Amino acid sequence: MNNLKEQLRKELRSEAPFTEDMKQRILMNNRLVKAPAKKLNWQVSIISLAFLLILGFVVMLQVTSDGETASKTVATLPTDPNELLALLQENENVLPIIESNGQLVIDPDTSFIMGKQWMLSNLPMVVKPDAEIQVGDYIAYYNTYDITVSPVYGVEGDKVQTSNGQVTLNGDFLALPGTVAPIEFDDAEQQEIFQYYFGYRYHFNKPQRDYIDVDIDPLSTNEYAVYMNDKGHTAQVIKESQIIGKVVGIEKLEPTFTLTTEEQSLYNAFKENYDMSLLQGAEPLTITKMYLQAEMELDYETHYALLTTREGPARAQIEHYLKNTQKIKEYYFTEDIQRLLNAYAFNGIERGQFEQRSENGGVITFIPTNSGSLETSAGMLKNEQGIWQPSFSRPIQ
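The structure assignment produced for this chain is given below.
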């Protein structure tokens, strides 16, 4: 491992391209699925020269990168917070949730998905190695020791600068999620909800919330400017040789912990009036699956009704968390997103084992399907009626 790190340091210091050997050794620690080789087969019919020239001119206008870049930049940013937010949302790159279908899939070590899909940053992503890369796209690339996903701030010929959180591209303001300095909304609730459009993350430590100003020389051939945050919001230059490809989607995964016919009937009956006595005798795993099902349906009332009712630190902590994040989840989380998050976090729980560890406490231990062999557990507490209830909640990142 030390030899690997030393060779990587030497290559980065010399700005030499990553060797194929180095790339493969980085990928050994990542789930990377090779896509089948793509074949391009262009056939152009013989048509009049005049029509061909006109067609070529129209196509050139449609794919010119300057036009694409111009649509992401403005000479003046709106001063009204809601107008600025609308501009960022209009320009943001929203990744679809898609089947991989044999395409390249990467499991990034570090990922910076901005705006409305910030919660999907740590999930496997579908990548096209040979796709054209433009400003605003997400790309996967080899960083010093891992695979990183970042938004693109500049391509060949572009001049990128950052100042106090504001990114400029060729002298104009780059108007994408994460490229604009935070502003104050009149409403405190809006401030809390929309902070994800301004580079905020729950897990960022204090240095990572600072800004590092850079003034990057015009990018040369095979160079790209991308967002980076090791010790603060900034931009950095990477080489084409580091790039794995353009991220074209988030890999779809369906939950495996579906309710049985009997469990579905119990779940439907419980939702009618939240009569806790209906759950007498139900297995802890059954109640946990119902709890997760309600969350995937965005049925927060039922989700909360199934939560532990036993007073104590566990309930107080979860209630505090739910209160602080409810509005955020209601704004950003769709059923597709919540199903995806629960699938990655809890697939495999259907094979879990319940273990009672105290008079009123227990856990369901299981190995998540997507985490290799790392065992995890979901806490349960028994209420005064002798019914086991979930005492956990998956934190948003």
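Interim note for the steering committee: Residues 1-19, 33-67 have pLDDT under 50 and may be disordered. Residues 1 and 40 are 39 Å apart (CA to CA).
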